[in-house]
Amino acid sequence: MADAAPGQLIGAASALQDSRPGLRFTLPDGRPGIAVRFRGQVYAYVNACAHVPVELDLVEGDVFDISGQYLVCAMHGAYYDPQTGRCLGGPCPGRRLTPLTVIERDGQVWLAA
Ligand code: FES
């Protein structure tokens, strides 16, 4: 018997490459989400800036800065630690993106139920 799905499918794990554009998805409550891979690990957040709750990406899924070390908001340049969602600079230092629990299994990335 196959294992039950661990949650909501976000997409293929292979679609997430380190510090490359992420996958957008919609949470069950309708909020936008974004999943990225950083240093081999997948992270996901509600796609809403901690400064003003607009989506971080102007170009779909493109949330890493040019160095590939930070998530950056396209609106006013807040930048975040990809591993914690903590704002490290810009207009909202110390605030955080809302983290989501993801599961990478059998070549797929899931939003945990
Ligand atoms: S809305 Fe994101 S930095 Fe202002």
Automatic annotation (TrEMBL):
Give residue ranges for domain Rieske.
11-111
Entries under InterPro entries matching the protein: Rieske_2Fe-2S, Rieske_2Fe-2S_sf
Q: What is the lineage of its organism?
A: Bacteria, Pseudomonadati, Pseudomonadota, Betaproteobacteria, Neisseriales
Q: Which organism is it from?
A: Rivihabitans pingtungensis
Keywords for this protein? 2Fe-2S, Iron, Iron-sulfur, Metal-binding
Question: What terms describe the molecular function in GO for this protein?
Answer: 2 iron, 2 sulfur cluster binding; metal ion binding
Protein name, UniProt field: Nitrite reductase/ring-hydroxylating ferredoxin subunit
SUPFAM superfamilies, per database record: ISP domain
